[in-house]
Amino acid sequence: MMKNIKDSYQHSYGLCLRLALVGVLIGLIVGAVDTIFGRVLLLIGDVRSAHLPYLLPFLALAGLVIVALYQRFGKDTQKGMGLIFEVAHGESEVIPLRLIPLVVISTWLTHLFGGSAGREGVAVQLGATISHRFRHCLSFPNSSQVLLVTGMAAGFAGLFQTPLAGLFFALEIVTLGQLNLYALLPSLFAVYTASSFSHFLGLEKFSHVLPLTQTITVEVFLKCLLLGLLFGLTGNAFVSLQSFFKKQAIDYLKNPYWRIALIGGVLSLALFFAHFGRYAGLGTNLIEASFSTHQVYSYDFLMKLLFTTLTLAVGFQGGEVTPLFAIGASLGVILAPVFGLPIELVAAAGYISVFASATNTLLAPILIGGEVFGFQNLPFFAITVIISYMLNRRQSIYGLQKAVAVDAE
């Protein structure tokens, strides 16, 4: 296997050029698709906020439509990110093109009617499905895996417009503890193309460059360690609760229609009475509040965690990453005064560190910190992320990640 990987990135100059061109082409297509998906999703969020009392009561009905769509047309696409990982590991061979309309429509429905979910997982699936179509165009060792990782990177970068983070997210997400460097060249071209093209097409990017640079003293270093521990535990809790809710829901409500209808009804009521939909949707309202003078409650992070894990566990569609950002940022706002550190700095550290723990990624969250909040505080971000990452090496929102076996002898 290692020989094949080595061979796969020691290419001739001609093949390197073809890989770069394919990366650009994938980036253009994925960037355009990400833009359509992302802009419609933002519009849906505005519509939901303006008409919440009329939409939230129909969350259960939207869930029934989602289940019906997947039961009728889904087949293997019901696995979602699981199917992407199976193809990446060579356990499955095909990602059906129908995954794109199914996951996009289902995610739009989830958000329109108030479900608490994200978008990144959808973007990564879109990118992987699109790049998978190019697998017959190139022939060399691991060509299918190279293209798959390239598409995943483009999907992440096109949606969040964080090209370096998107690059390393895709390189490190498939196999824990290993960078899939065989896809480095096309992924590099794909992420910058997708990010630039989605920006050109008008997709909004969240960025908040911090107006300060934190010096790392011994005291600050120790505070970073404790913050990383708390953020890591929060990421662990997200993964554990999502797995627990999913197992319990399947055990007690085996019929997927009854499952999503009953729990969807409970969710709609709970979301309505919990600050009138404050925890519906992506969680960008909590992120914006964390980096402004708006109110952040001490329980915001916990409520968002509970609503998101339950929404996704019962069959609604969407990603986890933006809610993880919201959970971490709102927790950081509460912890900052306790540790005597700037609120925005700790909120930014929480934003990336909870994500690191829940996804088992290291380099991507550190780079998100730099690309979103400015690289001047990279040492602070790196310390909290490393601790959060080291705290969780087995659990992940992506259950089919594979770990590299390390011989300790």
Provide key terms for this protein.
disordered N terminus; Clc chloride channel; 2 strands; mainly alpha; single chain; 409 residues
Gist?
By secondary structure, the protein is mainly alpha-helical. It has helices at 2-8, 13-50, 52-55, 59-74, 81-88, 99-112, 120-132, 143-160, 163-173, 184-200, 218-252, 256-273, 284-290, 300-313, 321-339, 343-359, 363-373, 378-391; strands at 175-176, 402-403.
Summarize the topology.
Blueprint: H1 2-8, H2 13-50, H3 52-55, H4 59-74, H5 81-88, H6 99-112, H7 120-132, H8 143-160, H9 163-173, E1 175-176, H10 184-200, H11 218-252, H12 256-273, H13 284-290, H14 300-313, H15 321-339, H16 343-359, H17 363-373, H18 378-391, E2 402-403
Parallel strand pairs: 1-2
Membrane topology: Multi-pass membrane protein
Protein name: Voltage-gated chloride channel protein
Subcellular location: Membrane
Would you write up a description of this structure?
The chain is mainly α. It is globular, with a radius of gyration of 20 Å. The protein has two domains: 188 residues, Orthogonal Bundle (Clc chloride channel); 186 residues, Clc chloride channel (Orthogonal Bundle). The protein has a two-stranded parallel ribbon with strand order 1-2. Helices cover 69% and strands 1% of the residues. Pfam families: Voltage_CLC. GO terms for molecular function: chloride transmembrane transporter activity. It is found in: Membrane. This is Voltage-gated chloride channel protein.
